[in-house]
Design a protein that fits this description.
The structure is a homodimer. Chain A is α/β, with parallel strands linked by helices. Chain A has three domains: 39 residues, no CATH class; 220 residues, P-loop containing nucleotide triphosphate hydrolases (Rossmann fold, 3-Layer(aba) Sandwich), CATH 3.40.50.300; 30 residues, no CATH class. Chain A is 47% helix and 12% strand. In chain A, α2 runs antiparallel to α6. The longest helix of chain A is centred in the last third of the chain and has 21 residues. Chain A is globular, with a radius of gyration of 21 Å. Chain A starts with a helix and ends with a helix. The relative contact order of chain A is 0.12.
Chain lengths: 301, 301
Amino acid sequence: MDAQELAGKLQQGDQRALARAISLAENDHPTGLEILQLLRYRDDVPVVGITGPPGAGKSSLVNALAERWLDAGLRVAVIAVDPTSPFNFGSLLGDRLRMAGLYLHPNLFIRSMASRGSLGGLSPRILEVCDLIKNAGYDRIVIETVGVGQSEVEIAGVADTTVVVMVPEAGDEVQTMKSGVMEIADVFVVNKADRDGAESFARLLRQLSIQRHTAAWEIPVLLTRGDTGDGVDALGEAIIRHHGNLPARRKELLFEKALHLLREQWLRRFPHTALRAELETEAAKPDFNLYRFVANLAQRG
Amino acid sequence: MDAQELAGKLQQGDQRALARAISLAENDHPTGLEILQLLRYRDDVPVVGITGPPGAGKSSLVNALAERWLDAGLRVAVIAVDPTSPFNFGSLLGDRLRMAGLYLHPNLFIRSMASRGSLGGLSPRILEVCDLIKNAGYDRIVIETVGVGQSEVEIAGVADTTVVVMVPEAGDEVQTMKSGVMEIADVFVVNKADRDGAESFARLLRQLSIQRHTAAWEIPVLLTRGDTGDGVDALGEAIIRHHGNLPARRKELLFEKALHLLREQWLRRFPHTALRAELETEAAKPDFNLYRFVANLAQRG
């Protein structure tokens, strides 16, 4: 099937065409890029990043959120970022299986994407994957990170709205440990809100958020329970409100995406294996200079 | 002063020429790149990244380490990554002031560099700064991150040896919260080792590290006290041993540096203000497609 044909099927909402196009894009197949060049640019579909430490209940919250949206007749896509790290695959598998209750819903599309490298960053092709999903007629995209390593901060460069999920017990750590994550939250969620300390932790988060409030957006701090669904409607509303509210932020995100795609396209001109070999040869010479080497490369590129 | 002249003075160890060259490189002044192209590529000077959460005592440890090396007659440079974040400037200022005891030592060079963006990443020019310092005749470079946000994982792409500093109380958190940081450690330090639980936390870290041991390197877990200097000699030795031990790792790091410089050089061809304006105009058109836009840009670049 050629790019034109795949793009056509994808735009009709064909899940198999979508899955195939995603694989092509992930593998840097030229047809993947061709398809993307045929599609519409859409920023009307909210992309929601859900992040937070392992054990915060992100998966059950994603589950509950997806269920609400599916019940409302919407088409929902969930991207689960899978770690390559040996430290944390155990809990993840269990999390994913809980999604099973919705797994067969015809309006739900689930895809897991490997994280990049040992530090758990997002795949460099996640933007492409989101754009393909949008064009296949999905109304909401939820990206769930594993909550470790780089993916938790990188998500802010991909998602329209970043939701940081924590549990009441995190109250003691939040001021010393997670400033990087504190700063990317558009919405805070205190999940497992039936536990002790939920209210006081929410108050602390509200205090910490005040200095990041703007005229356009006050960061809400919501109490939820993934198991019962309490507070999940409010979370869904906050996400949609945030997405609609921030044209300046969307413009900034578009610029960041353009820079990202520009960088990635540039790097494809230098196949890594050949580059490694050339660098190794050059670096062995006594007059090697990395800056001259890169300047020469760039002129060739 | 032109590039040739500045490079010459810098190579004689002139601190003012070094400071000037660093400013030029940080500001993307063409003379900065010219200087770098005139210098030798050196991978014989260990670059040590010190990371870990705020409150772990990184600054006093850096102090103690620098003092040992200065006493041994070595020339030492310390780069302090300063946050732009509003969340944590308070503690930092205090930390830096403690360095004051060594501040006037003639063989010590201290430079603070702003972190990049609100997520606290490392400055994209930190590689250039390290290369300038190496050519000014320094024997050791220590980069101290603020321990929040992206800088804590990014440091592994810059430093030859990454030292992760924690305190005994971190034992409860380490398995759930900090996997990203767990995975970048070449050396673990349990600082403030006179506190309760230091030994058992060190044992836990040793267990967690086993799966990351290789034939070339077993990750040491060291107990230190920044205030008394206990264990600091062993830390210094572990750093030098690690630096000398890993030619494969250094080769990988060189490749990563080349990619980084290649990306940054490419992006300089697209001045951000003009690019933003052009993107905004194009994005307003009904047939806008980001992938076609980027492909056209790349052809022009």
